[in-house]
Amino acid sequence: MRTQVAVVGAGPAGLLLAVLLEQAGIDVLLLERRSPEYVLSRIRAGVLEQGTVDLLDAAGVGRRMHAEGVPHEGIEISFNGDPLRIDLFKRSGGKRVLVYGQTELTRDLMDFRTGRPSVYEAEDVAVEGFDTAHPRVTYRRDGTTHVVECDFVAGCDGFHGVSRACLPAGAARTFERVYPFGWLGVMADVPPVRDELIYAHHERGFALCSMRSRTRVRCYIQCPLDTDVAAWSDARFWDELRLRLAPEVAAAMQTGPSIEKSVAPLRSFVAEPLRFGRLFLAGDAAHIVPPTGAKGLNLAASDVRYLAEGLIGHFCEGSEAGLDHYSARALARIWKAERFSWWMTELLHAFPEGGAFDRRLQRAEFDYLRGSEAAQTVLAENYVGLPV
Ligand SMILES: Cc1cc2nc3c(=O)[nH]c(=O)nc-3n(C[C@H](O)[C@H](O)[C@H](O)COP(=O)(O)OP(=O)(O)OC[C@H]3O[C@@H](n4cnc5c(N)ncnc54)[C@H](O)[C@@H]3O)c2cc1C
C-alpha cells in the first residue's frame, strides 16, 4: 500500500496531525498499536491553552469542546495553606485556558476521522528507510505483514513508541531529569471544591485539585515512586488530600467513589533533533514534561501545528522551508515549556533529599510571587501558553 504520510500513533498528536493533513488534501495512514477502546480509556491531561483551542477550532473539531469545556481565568496556589490566586486573564492580557479532558478531545478527533484510513491494533510497527527518499512502515495485523510505502513518516507514538527507538545509536541527543516521586491520581464524579484549579505545596507533599467538568474531579497527591495503588483506598486518598489543603478548602471538599486511580511518574525529557531524513518526531515521542505546568498535551499540539505547516508547504506549495525549520522551531517552544514545567515542579513539591535550605527557598519563591505583579505575569503568560 502507498500513502503520502504514515502517522505512527493515534494519541492526540497523531490524530490531530492526520486531521490537519487530510483537510489539506494529503493522504494519511494512521497506525496505532492499541484498540480504539483502549486509547479512549487512558485518563491523562485536562487543561488546553488558548493556542491549542484555536488550532482545534481551525481544524473544525471544537464544537463539543466549547459546549462542554469550562473556561478558566485563574488558578490558586496554596502554600502550606496560604492561598494566592493568579489572575491568568488579567496578567496574560486577556487569555484563558479551557478545562476539557484529553479523553474527550481524543474522542472528538476519532469521531471526526470516522471512515478515514486507520489501522488499530497494528502489531510490530517498524519504520525503515527514513534516511532515503523511500521510507516504509511495516506492521502485522491478524497474522499478516503489511508494508506501507510513503513520502514521510510522522512519529507520534509517545515516549515508549518505536519511532525514536528505531534511530541508530547517537542519532538523537537526549536530555533527561527523572524526579524522585510520582503523582497518585483519582477521578471521581463529584463537583469541584472551587471553580478554579488549586495547586498546593505542603510539607507532606504536593496536591492538585483539578477537574474535567463541573461534575467530575481529577485530584492528585505527590507519592513515592513505588506506591502501590491497591494500598490506597478512596478514603485514605481523600484524607491525605485534605491534609495538604487549606482547612476551609478541605472542609468544603466533596468526595465520592473513585472511577479511576493510578500512579504516574514525573519526568523531564527532550530528544534533539526532531527530524531524521524523512522521519519527524512530534509530541511525547520527542519530549516529556512533568504534568505540573499542564503542558504535555499542549506541546504535542504545537509540534503538530508546525509539522502540519511544513508538510502542507511541501505537498501543496512546493516549499521545503517549513520542514527544514520544523525541528528548530518546535524545540525553541519545547524548551520554554520544559523550563516552566520544571519551575512549577520545583516550587510545589516536597523533595525527599531537600533540606531546610531548599524549603526556605521555596517559601521565598512563593512570597516573591505573591508580592510581585511581574512574577505573576511570568507565571500567567507561561500557563496560558507562550505564542506559537
Ligand atoms: C498517566 C499520564 C498522565 C498525564 N497527565 C497529564 C496532565 O495532567 N496534563 C498534561 O498536560 N499532560 C499530561 N500527560 C501528558 C499528556 O497526556 C501527553 O503529553 C499527551 O498524551 C501527548 O500526546 P501524544 O499523542 O504525543 O502521545 P500519546 O498520548 O502517548 O499517544 C501515543 C500513541 O502512540 C501509540 N503507540 C505507542 N507505541 C506504538 C507503536 N509501536 N506502534 C503504533 N502506535 C504506538 C500509543 O498507544 C498511543 O496511542 C499525562 C501523561 C500520562 C502518561
Set down the secondary structure blueprint.
Layout: E1 5-8, H1 12-23, E2 28-31, H2 36-41, E3 47-48, H3 50-58, H4 63-68, E4 70-72, E5 74-79, E6 82-87, H5 88-91, E7 97-99, H6 102-112, E8 118-119, E9 123-128, E10 136-141, E11 144-149, E12 152-155, H7 162-165, E13 173-188, E14 197-201, E15 207-213, E16 216-223, H8 234-243, H9 247-252, E17 258-272, E18 275-276, E19 279-281, E20 287-288, H10 296-317, H11 321-348, H12 356-371, H13 373-383
Helix pairs in contact: 1-6, 1-10, 10-11, 12-13
The chain binds flavin-adenine dinucleotide (FAD).
Explain this structure:
With 388 residues, the protein is α+β, with helices and mostly antiparallel strands. The chain has two domains: 5-72 and 100-176 and 267-345, 3-Layer(bba) Sandwich (FAD/NAD(P)-binding domain); 180-266 and 351-384, D-Amino Acid Oxidase, subunit A, domain 2 (D-Amino Acid Oxidase, Chain A, domain 2). 37% of the residues lie in helices and 28% in strands. It has 13 helices and 20 strands. It has helices at 12-23, 36-41, 50-58, 63-68, 88-91, 102-112, 162-165, 234-243, 247-252, 296-317, 321-348, 356-371, 373-383; strands at residues 5-8, 28-31, 47-48, 70-72, 74-79, 82-87, 97-99, 118-119, 123-128, 136-141, 144-149, 152-155, 173-188, 197-201, 207-213, 216-223, 258-272, 275-276, 279-281, 287-288. Strand 14 (197-201) and strand 15 (207-213) form a beta hairpin. Helix 12 packs across helix 13. The longest helix has 28 residues, at 321-348. The relative contact order is 0.17. The structure holds flavin-adenine dinucleotide. Flavin-adenine dinucleotide (FAD) binds at residues 8-14, 31-34, 39, 44-46, 102, 122, 125, 156-158, 161-162, 264, 283-284, 291, 294-297, 300.
